[in-house]
TrEMBL record:
It catalyses: a fatty acyl-[ACP] + S-adenosyl-L-methionine = an N-acyl-L-homoserine lactone + S-methyl-5'-thioadenosine + holo-[ACP] + H(+). It is an enzyme of class 2 (transferase). GO terms for molecular function: N-acyl homoserine lactone synthase activity. Keywords: Autoinducer synthesis, Quorum sensing, S-adenosyl-L-methionine, Transferase. One of its GO terms (biological process) is quorum sensing. The keyword Aminoacyl-tRNA synthetase does not apply. This is Acyl-homoserine-lactone synthase.
Length: 210
């Protein structure tokens, strides 16, 4: 199951968050080569890992194997503060729109071919479940353009916010992706069950989104 971590309960997840920050460093610094994010302690942490961030982790056998971070667009976030050049239209802002960042899955748990891995499916399903319970129906994503078709196939309604730009050697495009019950149904169909993937959310995970 996917666990949500906020400023309210992060003190209970010190070990898990340490593993998550190290997974982020492995993926974004060591694999992707984003050397600007490199840290001597091998923990990738930035200015958005603050009291407004909502972290989601996936654990298997007690170890963090998947992670993603949600940021409210009503507060400073990547598109507003770091990657503003990716947006060529009026920037989407609102309590119902959050930014999806730092998505990463440990190597042994990634998809092979076109199908989403169980961990990837659970992380995406968690966004939709959380959003539908919290009044959130759109996410901003900065991603490689190849993901556009994948998201459409998962029943996200995707709108580019600008043209792709070269960032750190990668082509990156910003999009806003709308989702609803059809998105969740597609993800459930892909994994073959309709079981809830989210554990009980701390109150701040829902209140913060309203």
């Amino acid at each position: 199951m996917i666990e949500i971590i906020t400023t309210e309960n992060i003190h209970l997840y010190r070990t898990e968050m340490d593993e998550a920050y190290r997974l982020r460093h492995d993926v974004f610094v060591d694999e992707k080569g984003w050397r600007d994010l490199a840290q001597a302690d091998q923990r990738e942490i930035d200015q958005f890992d603050n009291e407004h961030a909502l972290h989601m982790i996936c654990r298997q056998n007690g170890k963090v194997v998947g992670y993603q971070r949600m940021l409210p667009t009503t507060k400073p976030h990547l598109l507003s503060s770091v990657l503003a050049d990716l947006c060529e239209v009026e920037r989407p802002v609102g309590d119902h729109i959050w930014e999806w960042t730092r998505y990463c899955v440990a190597k042994p748990h990634r998809e092979r071919g076109r199908a989403l891995s169980p961990v990837a499916n659970a992380l995406l399903s968690a966004i939709v479940e959380w959003g539908m319970e919290s009044g959130v129906d759109r996410i901003i994503i900065e991603m490689e353009p190849i993901w556009l078709l994948r998201l459409v196939q998962l029943n996200f309604m995707v709108t580019p916010l600008g043209i792709p730009r070269e960032i750190g050697g990668d082509s990156v495009v910003a999009v806003v992706a709308k989702f609803d019950h059809r998105t969740l149904q597609m993800l459930q169909a892909m994994r073959g069950n309709s079981k809830r993937v989210l554990k009980d959310c701390p109150p701040s995970a829902v209140v913060a989104a309203q």
